[in-house]
Amino acid sequence: MKKLLNDPADAVADSLAGFALAHADLVRLSPAPVFVVRAGGAVTGKVGLVSGGGSGHEPLHAGFVGDGMLDAAVPGAVFTSPTPDQILPAVQAADGGAGVLTIVKNYTGDVLNFESAVELAVEEGIEVASVLVNDDVAVEDSLYTAGRRGVAGTVAVEKIAGAAADRGADLAGVTAVAERVIANVRSMGVALAAPRVPHVGRPSFDLADDEIEVGIGIHGEPGRRRVPAADADAVTEMLLTPVADDLALARGERVLLFVNGMGGTPLSELYVVYGRARRLLEERGVTVSRSLVGNYVTSLEMQGASVTVLRLDDELEALWDAPVNTAALRW
Amino acid sequence: MKKLLNDPADAVADSLAGFALAHADLVRLSPAPVFVVRAGGAVTGKVGLVSGGGSGHEPLHAGFVGDGMLDAAVPGAVFTSPTPDQILPAVQAADGGAGVLTIVKNYTGDVLNFESAVELAVEEGIEVASVLVNDDVAVEDSLYTAGRRGVAGTVAVEKIAGAAADRGADLAGVTAVAERVIANVRSMGVALAAPRVPHVGRPSFDLADDEIEVGIGIHGEPGRRRVPAADADAVTEMLLTPVADDLALARGERVLLFVNGMGGTPLSELYVVYGRARRLLEERGVTVSRSLVGNYVTSLEMQGASVTVLRLDDELEALWDAPVNTAALRW
Amino acid sequence: MALDADWAERWVRRTADAIADAKDELTELDRQIGDGDHGENLDRGFKAVVARLDDAAAEPEPAGERTVGDVLKLVATTLMSTVGGASGPLYGTAYLRAAKVSGRPQIDPPAVVAVLEAALEGVASRGKATVGEKTMVDAWHAAVEAAEAAAGDGGSEVDVLRAAAAAADTAATATIPLVATKGRASYLGERSAGHEDPGARSTALVLGAAMAAALSGPTPADPRSAA
Amino acid sequence: MALDADWAERWVRRTADAIADAKDELTELDRQIGDGDHGENLDRGFKAVVARLDDAAAEPEPAGERTVGDVLKLVATTLMSTVGGASGPLYGTAYLRAAKVSGRPQIDPPAVVAVLEAALEGVASRGKATVGEKTMVDAWHAAVEAAEAAAGDGGSEVDVLRAAAAAADTAATATIPLVATKGRASYLGERSAGHEDPGARSTALVLGAAMAAALSGPTPADPRSAA
Ligand SMILES: Nc1ncnc2c1ncn2[C@@H]1O[C@H](COP(=O)(O)OP(=O)(O)O)[C@@H](O)[C@H]1O
Ligand SMILES: Nc1ncnc2c1ncn2[C@@H]1O[C@H](COP(=O)(O)OP(=O)(O)O)[C@@H](O)[C@H]1O
Ligand SMILES: [Mg+2]
Ligand SMILES: [Mg+2]
Ligand SMILES: [Mg+2]
Ligand SMILES: [Mg+2]
Predict the structure, then answer these.
(1) Residue C59's domain is classified under what CATH number?
(2) D45-89: per-residue pLDDT in tens?
(3) How many structural domains is chain C composed of?
(4) Which subunits have 3 or more CB–CB pairs within 8 Å of chain C?
(5) Separation of B108 CA from ligand 5 center, angstroms?
């Protein structure tokens, strides 16, 4: 299996080393335990924002460390949650005295490891709040699942909570904004081809040349159902419809439409999906007032895309528009 | 062959339609003949910048239309130069009265079609200059080739010439800056897997699982040589060494190091390549003072990367740093 | 039997059919040593040409007799505005120059040779290529030499075109061992040897269609003849 | 023959070997209904455990006799800080709770049962999972029930562990038809049926190693015994 890597065991470390060198103006890398923190360290008096999760989703999360977004990011092994002994020092490094919000994608592993770290941080006297991102409508939030997964909607949570922290909101305020984003953001994804985890040496799942996986997560898990390959318009409808239905979007509402690439699909195709998703929203009487198209929450070189919709109001829109300066998101 | 597309014949049009909707604040799309122009149209008194080429290299070129970079971009069919009847109106739309510079990647098709269009534009009384980007050291610039190809270095030419135009340089001045970038930028690329052109239905070339193509272009052409797969450090050396040698970099010089993804390789791997390329430059006594890592000049979902080095001086560095606001490059 | 504008139109329509039939073959040749779009490029262009010919056929006959050059000029401008790539401007220039020397209702054997010479000169000057560089110039050049010889021997229009088509076909095959020094295939260096040049092959198809059009009279598929 | 800290160390080292051997199999199970990293995760963790045991073995013997709990605590903290994912905290908690009830140089059959009960309680409370949700809880639960029965029948340490290991193995296999309602496999819904749960399988390996370590005495591969 060909990859631009050295020893697969060093994949994450090598990549982070390059990342930190390329963006030394924005971030600093702690090599052991591994975490990434903004170049200047914690901002005194500002609520610190920390996120993290398995590697393989780049630019998430390290690519969002910087002004107006995260203060620290904690990357685990590929597709594997980081450990508490990485998360704890990242929380400490992000604490500017106003407390820290950890933004956790809802996966058992992420939840458990962050839980332990937060417990330890609180013991050390840091005020810590946590939010769980669970935007993936492919998974029902029921007794029969680990709950909905956190996927691309995480970008919106990190961006908007980051802007709120930048504006000087206190920990309760930043947490409330993050919760409001979580309550109003939904996603659904599709895979045309599986990613290949460096140390595994083969695709994470096997898809025939006329099949696609609908309702995939971002860890190479198979999706909810395997269906015959279809054209972009049809596939986009499979993604957008459950998202818009779950949000119960009403005519006249306005949204952020985010088409996210899974890593191995050309940007040009993401814009095809975007065009169709936008038309479908407009047919529902919904206005797309903000847009994001690109590879932000990836699954290595998985081919596919996800559609994320965030219901906007004046405050969320203003926070989305607020300046941000990170490796992967900047305006 | 699965892709997020509708009718392959509409791939470019569908994608551009989505692109123009997503970035309506930055660009406007002319549907027939097809070209993309900045939302406000030409800037009076500013030299206009126009580039173009085959589609399939997104975000190049349309993703670089906006403040501080291109005024118009002309996308052809996938991997096929646009026609003069697209280029001419784009040149007209970019003309703010101070003349237009066309930035052409050196491929026979691009050269011939731009040549015809420029001839027509000049006939219509527009002052037009042209530069040919030919940064790919994989191809010798000799009697026995069509000359070196233009590849990822194009981003640097467009960014820096765009900044010069923004600063108010006249057509001769902008052209001179662009030529200076071209004289000082070199690239080399590698492919691990070939792209799949929508209407072709199979990979552009066939690579065994233990082979890579070194010295590839961005149109799915095979490379200069096929070699056994190697690790990232070894591959990076195959790319960086000829680039640095061709530039004859001396100790104490400083450069922009740009690691460009071909579309289907995870960002994390690009940072591995970046880290190694940077170390190799530092071993030569060369300082990396500016960096860019990401998918900017792609070849659909080709897996692989290219390494670009631009020799910097105070002026080029300042122009690189100047503000830019486009869909794909923003600071 | 001199060749007229109807022949030119039959030529072009037959070319469109031949290119459509060979589309995948041409694309595969280009995939080997280029970027895999030559068949698609020409097919898009000639389909557009046919569409314009159909439009023209649907309109009232213009005053004045249609010349061979009228048809070829339509082909030239259509290819230039729809093909792109290297082959768009090259074929476009070929047909444009050919149109310039054929602005008459009928052309005789020496005029057929002049048409081919003009096309060759257009391609070679536009592409700055000479014989032996493994491009379409190789096929055009061989065609011109053979056509000149056939016309010199007093051959008919059909004889001239038959010689041209056969020579172009042979020349296309003869590009296989060559190392390309122009166009995209030149990037491959030595690796370009062993593959036929797609542009030389398409040139052979174009000239084969010219001969076939001269051999056949108007066909029912031709809207003008049906009118 | 009560089980001591050396037994615990042999247990852990044998577990590391068993996991290393089964790494690809565990990863493949996880690839089917999870994210394909379970083997890699545990292998990374247990390799780190062995490295720390080696470090400890190289150091001068600490004062006071080593307890079973000392070894299990080292396993717990090492897994927690090196495994990540869901299984890191779950196994980490299992060993931590087990360590808490085994802070003695020797443990007898009822104490072995208590160790297993504590581990089960740790996994179940941490993962908020109950029996039948197609997780490692299924294997731990079956092991505890079997161990309790064996101890109740007056079995030896080896009897207790043999019963636990056999039950865990059976329970792991019995996860195959289940639909997962916890962990990553639950995302698959009905599609999770038909595949064995990787965590239940690794639990069976862990308990198999415990029994094997009890059956065997100190081995030459064990640096402590070589010292
Ligand atoms: N400089 C040149 N002179 C003459 N013919 C050329 C030249 N460059 C390319 N060609 C011809 O064009 C053909 C390729 O056309 P096409 O594939 O449509 O364009 P592109 O190379 O831009 O993809 C080649 O096979 C060759 O015959
Ligand atoms: N909530 C839970 N309770 C108990 N065990 C669980 C739970 N979630 C997951 N597991 C166990 O963890 C195993 C997966 O571990 P692993 O693959 O290492 O972590 P991850 O799922 O984070 O990739 C599952 O096979 C299952 O046995
Ligand atoms: Mg995992
Ligand atoms: Mg082409
Ligand atoms: Mg071609
Ligand atoms: Mg797993």
Answers:
(1) 1.25.40.340
(2) 999 999 999 999 888 877 789 999 999 999 999 999 999 999 999
(3) 1
(4) B
(5) 10
